[in-house]
Amino acid sequence: MAFDDLAYTGTPHDRVPARRADPEWVADQFARPDVQLVPMWRDRCLLAAGVPIVATGHRSRQIAAAAGESVLLGLEDGTPVFAADLSAVDEPTALRLSAAQESTDLRRLAARLSHPQAATLAYARGLLHWNRHTRFCGVCGSPARSAQAGHVRVCTALDCARVLFPRIEPAVIVLIESPGAEPRCLLARHHGADPDSFSLLAGFVEIGESLEGTVRREAAEEAGVTVGTVTYQGSQGWPFPSGMMIGFVGQALDDRIDVDGAELLEARWFTRGEVVERIVDGPGAGPADSIGGWLLRSWAGLGASPEVRP
């Protein structure tokens, strides 16, 4: 399975880091007649006839005037693309300003969007969310202002002036293989999951850990499985709100399982045939937009989920 099958990856923009620090250049880009503006409301996409709104012309300027924050996503084939946060107004006002009929969560849309569309909306969502939730300096508590077209915030206190960058929270997700001649992988049922809802293990990276160390710790803590070799497979931006999912395959040193009873209710080894049966005729491989499903389908020898458009 190709890495390009992952949702939210590969935004089609030149992010112009050397130019976006120039306020005059950014203003000139927004004043261009071909400028495009992606509006969002409280992390939700705004739709007309089921299609995400991309405003142009006079409407883009109306939206920007009402927005709490606008950011530059970059240039797409030379065309400037911005995103605007309408969270400061109520939903009916946001719909009216953007000529939208409804708002919805991006993950509900992902299966019917092209990869560039989904990646653009994920990028906009994550950057706008960070700006909206980083109003104050974490060191001195003074207000922070937007800079570099929304990609940086700066503390306004002269004796602090701390530069704040978007926070990314890395997490690992791992397909663990058992030892032995017959290929088997570990799937677990998490607390609160449906009786037949099994998935891969995942967890956030802690301070002072390597990614491989996180894989081994999570496997040991949650499932009582000892992992040896850990091999990187791919990564996925996960702006829900600020994650980065990093996928691995791990090799268990033995087939013993001892779930913690807190995070996991049960875990067991599944053969490749059982995984294929679950994907084709059963509950599936998990969310179609997730790297977890990508890892599982890849291990099972299946192609990309039919729910995800190439």
List keywords for this structure.
single chain, about 300 residues, alpha+beta, Nucleoside Triphosphate Pyrophosphohydrolase, 7-stranded mixed beta sheet, 4-stranded mixed beta sheet
Short description:
By secondary structure, the protein is α+β, with helices and mostly antiparallel strands.
What's the arrangement of secondary structure elements?
Blueprint: H1 23-31, E1 36-41, E2 44-48, E3 51-52, E4 55-56, H2 57-66, E5 69-76, E6 79-85, H3 91-98, E7 102-104, H4 106-109, H5 115-132, E8 144-147, E9 152-155, E10 163-164, E11 169-177, E12 184-190, E13 201-204, H6 211-223, E14 227-238, E15 243-252, E16 264-271, H7 272-281, H8 291-300
Parallel strand pairs: 1-6, 11-15
Antiparallel strand pairs: 1-2, 1-4, 2-3, 2-7, 5-6, 8-9, 9-10, 11-13, 12-16, 14-15
Helix pairs in contact: 7-8
